[in-house]
Write a structure and sequence with these properties.
Oligomer: single chain
Shape: globular
Strand order of the largest sheet: 12-13-2-1-15-14
Distance between the termini: 34 Å
Structural class: mainly beta
Strand content: over 45%
Number of strands: 36
């Protein structure tokens, strides 16, 4: 158990009678244990290059750039898919990037996190992608072990154990090199990170592009990176945003940042150093956010990961960005990603699939459900406005639908992930 971090997600207390001598008390804890991930620098910093395509095992973030669909394989790398014909997507190559979780593209250059580094790849020829720049230590590490290498992340594993009631009843305590806490977000890694022609990311992205800069969020910081056409990348600012930061979404000179405690609106009149304009607070919950300019749509979800109990859609008036006001809240099942396009609101509801609403009346969105499909899980979505194509990612893989008829979608293709065959 040395060098492990443990995080509680739920606990229960029970008492038992020990024979006739005395009562004994035990705490039964079911929690997440976060084990350290060490990577040697020479392994982490091997140059990234395109390799032959391979089967999709686990679906992570998705990103659209031109005719290409880029699919993150969590912690392993990025699949490059020719998606010129959404009904017939073709895997072209795989980019092995250790510790990768987020990505963004500008002017043919792909920016991706590799644990604590930011790598820049030339994507102009997807069959011959090459690393052209690496910004080492762009994101913080937890430390270094001379033998094991860089401590770059923690991976969770569920564990149930029993302890005497007399031991460690506080919210946080120490036992040797082990840290225990009932706050399941207090020690998350914060290493999930970071825009001309730029691509399109989903609502759960932690990277976004604007005005020749890459903006990234960790669990507490907002960072800005200045991008050169030759791939050279320089970090120009980092500022604390709050805590439990999750997503970033750009729209018309604004950065909308979602956290488990609220939505933050940042202006980028000074692009290299975004300025906080306002905060809209809510009860604790996970909350991706999108906007059409005058209105922000925020999905709140509860559960173990997000701690809270809310599962709803918040509709917020942001016509005055310094004074956001709630218009109305709508109960939902377990919403995650979402997208707004031409008055149509797409909401992913986890294992209950996808919903499409008409937002013509912001005070009666729930009465204007146009379409629903519960046959698959839906986590995040990218909408291609021109082609009327919705690309949806979920636990079982990726679905592409035509919604030219909003009330009757047509399935174009399904890329299945191996873990759900």
């Amino acid at each position: 158990m040395k060098n492990a971090i443990f995080v509680f997600t739920f606990f229960s207390l029970f008492f038992s009678l020990n024979s006739c001598l005395k009562d004994t008390c035990e705490n039964v804890y079911t929690y997440q244990r976060f084990d350290p991930v060490y990577v040697k620098p020479e392994v982490l910093r091997q140059k990234v290059a395109a390799s032959v395509s391979k089967e999709l095992v686990t679906t992570g973030k998705i990103y659209v750039y031109g005719d290409y669909l880029l699919i993150n394989e969590p912690d392993l790398g990025i699949h490059v898919v020719d998606n010129k014909v959404p009904a017939n997507p073709k895997f072209i190559s795989f980019l092995k990037i250790p510790g990768n979780s987020d990505l963004a593209v500008r002017n043919g250059l792909l920016y991706a996190d590799s644990y604590i580094d930011l790598v820049v790849l030339d994507l102009k020829n997807p069959l011959d992608v090459k690393e052209i720049y690496r910004l080492e230590n762009a994101f913080p590490s937890y430390g270094k072990d001379e033998k094991l290498g860089l401590l770059v992340a923690y991976k969770a594993a569920g564990v149930t154990e029993t302890f005497p009631c007399s031991e460690n009843s506080g919210n946080t305590f120490f036992e040797g090199n082990v840290i225990w806490t009932r706050d399941n977000n207090s020690l998350t890694s914060g290493l999930k990170t970071p825009s001309g022609t730029v691509g399109i990311g989903g609502s759960t992205a932690r990277f976004t592009m604007n005005q020749g800069l890459l903006y990234t969020v960790s669990t507490s910081n907002l960072s800005a990176f200045k991008l050169e056409d030759n791939g050279v990348t320089k970090q120009v600012s980092t500022q604390n945003v709050g805590w439990n930061i999750e997503t970033i979404y750009p729209f018309e000179g604004l950065l909308l940042i979602g956290s488990q405690n609220g939505m933050y609106i940042y202006g980028i009149d000074n692009p290299e150093k975004p300025q906080l304009l306002s905060t809209f607070e809510h009860w604790r919950a996970c909350d991706p956010v999108v906007s059409d300019g005058k209105t922000a749509f925020v999905t709140l979800r509860g559960g173990t990961e997000c701690e809270g109990f809310l599962n709803q859609l918040d509709v917020i008036n942001i016509s005055d960005v310094r004074n956001p006001k709630l218009i109305k809240s709508y109960p939902l099942y377990h919403p995650i990603g979402l997208s707004i396009n031409e008055g149509l609101l797409f909401i992913c509801e986890d294992d209950r699939g996808i919903k499409l609403y008409d937002t013509k009346d912001l005070n009666a969105i729930d009465k204007n459900l146009i379409y629903q499909d519960k046959s698959f899980s839906a986590v995040d979505i990218i909408v291609l406005e021109e082609d009327k194509v919705a690309i949806i990612t979920g636990e079982e893989g990726i679905w592409q639908f035509s919604y030219k008829n909003p009330a009757k979608w047509e399935l174009l293709s399904n890329i299945k992930s191996k873990t759900n065959d």
